Amino acid sequence: MHVRHPRTALLAALLFTLTASARAKEPPRRLVYIRGPGTEHCPEEEYLKAATRAELGYDPFDATASGQLVVTLSRDEAQGRIDFTLELLDPDGTRGQARRGWGPIERCDQTLLNAGLRIATLYEPFPGTPEPLPSSPPVPAEPPEASPPPPVKTAIAPPAPKRAAPRPAQPTSFAWKARWISLSLSAGAAWNSAPGVAPSIASQVAVRWPRWSVGAEGRIDPSGSGDVPNGSASASLFGAALVGCGRHDAWLRHLSLLACVQVLPARLFFEEKGNTARRTVVGLGPRASAELRIRGPLRARLDVDATSFLPIQSFERNGLEVWRMPLVTISTRLGLVYLHDL
Known about the structure:
about 350 residues; 2 domains; four-stranded mixed beta sheet; 3 helices
């Protein structure tokens, strides 16, 4: 390339400067992170910063900047989600257009990942824009001789290969970490666990993930009385169960359907005419449950169990069978569940 006129080179440099300024990124801003009511359990500010760095490859925030980037979280129970709002606040108080997004209500970390991606678009609206070519060396002034010297040949150095910024690891969502602890209390009735219909009471503590849960449950079926040959008898059941469930959300996450399996070691007490027999049994069987969100962390829950207690128990008097526990017992209970965010 031959450069014959210094003014041409200066004009090219000026045009390049204006073009580079037009493509300048959003200036660094101070991050203001606000967790509204119902989102206090969401990750800290550092999680949002890490999510943004993972998208951009650098940290766009400056704690000393006069301009602010305000990120506000809010909880929408009706839609079953956590919303975020991004606002740019200039030093003179001018507010930019708000940008919004959301994530599922049980995955606040996903809401912050979405917010980090949205912030990245503010700072890098045209990803992959190539770096400008290096400018040519300055052209020496022409000597004052009458005849111009031979043209100076100036080579343009080839552009250096653009090095991709190291991309930090994406903030982990800790899929293995439990999201909630649930406490429940329910009461109802049981059939076939005693000679007659027996009351059934259960209390459970469980740890929950978005799609499944594991819990420990205490169950009491006290004194179910009924007729037996030549009189009446009663039986009581006291046990502690391990319950594992899978969950499917429906109706905008207001209704949850659960399919469970339980293992229930228990003590069975049978009383007939002043005589008491005590047996140890183990119950196995499925459970179908439904949970309906009432308000905030409170849910109503319906459980229906079908349980087989082994070994099958038979009670006799004077060599004659008085009562035999059926192969399958049925119980149904209605109660309340309280969820605590971890």
